[in-house]
Amino acid sequence: xxxxxxxxxxxxxKLNTSTAKTVACAASMDEAIIDVxxxxxxxxxxxxxxxxxxxxxxxxxxxxxxxxxxxAAIIAPQIIAIAEEYTHIFAPSTTFGKDLMPRVAALLGxxxxxxxxxxxxxxxxxxxxxxxxxxxTIEIPMQDIVVATIRIASYAATTNGNSATIxxxxxxxxxxxxxxxxxxxxxxxxxxxxxxxxxxxxxGGRALASEENFDIIxxxxxxxxxxxxxxRAAVDAGYVPNEMQVGQTGKIIAPDLYIAIGISGAIQxxxxxxxxxxxxxxxxxxxxxxxxxxxxxxxxxLFIAVPELIEALN
Amino acid sequence: xxxxxxxxxxVVDYNVRVRVKSDSSGIETEGVKMSINxxxxxxxxxxxxxxxRGEASEIIVISIGSTEAQQQLRTGLAMGADRAILVETxxxxxxxxxxxxxxxxxxxxxxxLVILGKQxxxxxxxxxxxxxxxIWDRPQATFASQLEIKxxxxxxxxxxxxxxxxxxxxxxxxxxxxxxxxxxxxxKLPDIMKAKxxxxxxxxxxxxxxxxxxxxxxxxxxxxxxxxxxxxxxxxAELVATLKEKGLA
Lengths: 314, 249
Fold this sequence. Notes:
The complex is a heterodimer of chains A (314) and B (249). Chain A is of the alpha/beta class. Helix content of chain A is 24%, strand content 27%. Chain A has helices at 17-27, 44-51, 72-83, 95-108, 215-224, 232-236, 267-270, 302-312; strands at residues 3-7, 33-40, 56-63, 88-92, 112-116, 118-119, 124-129, 134-139, 146-150, 165-168, 180-186, 200-204, 227-230, 257-261, 278-283, 296-299. In chain A, strand 2, helix 2 and strand 3 form a beta-alpha-beta unit. In chain A, 57% of the residues are buried. In chain B, a hairpin with a 2-residue loop joins strand 7 (140-150) and strand 8 (153-160). Chain B has helices at residues 38-52, 70-79, 95-109, 128-136, 189-195, 236-245; strands spanning 3-7, 10-12, 34-36, 58-65, 83-88, 113-117, 140-150, 153-160, 163-170, 173-177, 200-204, 217-222, 231-233. Chain B is 27% helix and 31% strand. The termini of chain B are far apart. Chain B has 249 residues and is of the alpha/beta class. In chain B, helix 2 packs across helix 5. Chains A and B meet through helix 3, helix 4, strand 5, strand 7 and strand 8 of A and helix 3, helix 4, strand 7, strand 8 and strand 9 of B. Strand 11 (180-186) of chain A pairs antiparallel with strand 9 (163-170) of chain B, so a sheet runs across the interface.
């Protein structure tokens, strides 16, 4: 019977939705028993949130002051200390999980599976390669523990309503390295919906041509209660910060509605939005590749069309 | 700092739209343009800049792959690397095997810093740097957009989902390069000529004293479900009407 450990992602105060999506993936495996591990300085509130997730059997808290900043080099050895109990260890394929899980796998002497999009059996998984232009089915040998990151855009978050047991683990016996130290985090503070989990997303591209012009994207997003994303070109040009990048190397998202404005649609961008419900594209260039995947396309100058759209939504 | 080791993977060029072979056994690479993985090019550029600032004395490039990967290593030498190592194998090796192969040269050549691309654009695994630092028992700074060497420490800015994170690490360490770390230089013709004279060492993977397993078994390759082209609307009014019809606005 598969026994799966899901590593909770959180920001020190709140559980990230990526955890509920990872649990949903774990629950799609037949007969899986699912534990969630929370590594934090103070895990109390996060553990309560995790215990509400349906399908979770037990939440394990590992509280140490060193766990405050979720550093891979610090958390990995603590996971190794408890790995023996499990057949599978899962984490979301976010920068948190991508940083952590290969370190865990290497310490266990096994390969790691990145971006699981479907579980075929306890040993067989599907994952995208080549920016999503191909899907590979892989099999892990029976004797190996499966260490994987989960492509969260492929799963709907597991619902709340559970009251799993919460237990405190004893992590203090694990010796932790001091060679990696957190200094600071620079986030652009925003009250907009979170890009990775929002139901609606409005993204802008290079055609916005400046940081100031991006205002109309924020305005439209505000009207729709949408999160704001961007193409790599817009981030590279400095119009918006890096955490807004959507695509192969940025965020892979699956909103119900995605509006691409002034984005030509390089394959690296398209791979980030393939699972969106409805894609709308507004672009001046009728030949732009974005129109090949858009459900609704409008060939127009964005500086005219977007203000009109905002007006029409009033 | 003495030596920086940079990994260069030979991959299908990022402009190529890959196709799955008709028998589902892999990806069509016959006659397809191959290049250095773009993230690895950024890693090499960063190493070269560190050397040009006088903070390192030798840049070594390493590739684990087929004999054709010598082309990518020569390009790396033309960009400015001092010497190259090819660990030759015709099999598809996993990230852990690659990490173990790189580790054996870290030990042999006493490397102080390793910079790798954060992911290769073929397998999109994003694993080797993390695995290497794990088996080396050294710090990892993944998805780096800025790297500042300060004696035996480094300050690294990382691009993470929440924004930019700054960490301080002790050297030696492994860095994985993200897109915005730098813009790699173009190779000039005289440098290509010069690169031909630089040392390129070839070792068979099977001659390294490393455990190559465990193996990941690929069962099948499939084309993804494609989205089909939708409808075009003529103006914003029509767009809004369609949105409302679908209950999206």
